Amino acid sequence: MKGAKLDVDLTETIRELESEMLKTDDDLHFEKAALLRDQIKELKHMIDGTKPETKPVSYRKSKKARGRG
């Protein structure tokens, strides 16, 4: 039963975060909306027991972008 309580709490937390994410998106606070989106993804992975997908992040400009200008 304890696991069910955790799922309900996470589900409610996800609903609240989604609502806040939509509001921040409407207010043009895109960085905050992106952070909320990432938190929501992590919580959903906690519920279903899957590992979040990890993609390498690169802040380098692509070769195409370097050639411009």
Describe the fold and architecture.
The chain is mainly α and 69 residues long. The protein has one domain (2-51). Helix content is 71%, strand content 0%. The chain contains three helices and no strands. Helix 1 (2-26) packs antiparallel against helix 2 (30-48). The longest helix is centred in the N-terminal third of the chain and has 25 residues, at 2-26. The radius of gyration is 17 Å and the shape is flat. It starts with a helix and ends with a helix. 3% of the residues are buried.
Q: How are helices and strands ordered from N to C?
A: HHH
> How does the helix and strand content classify structurally?
mainly alpha
Q: What is the strand tally?
A: 0
Helix content percent band: over 70%
Biggest sheet layout: none
Distance between the termini: 61 Å
Quaternary structure classification? single chain
Number of helices: 3
Per DSSP, what share of the residues sits in E-state strands of 2 or more residues? Answer: under 5%
Rg, Å, rounded: 17 Å
Mean pLDDT: 77
> Uncertain runs with pLDDT below 50, 5 residues or more?
none
The geometry reads as flat
User: How many discrete structural domains?
Assistant: 1
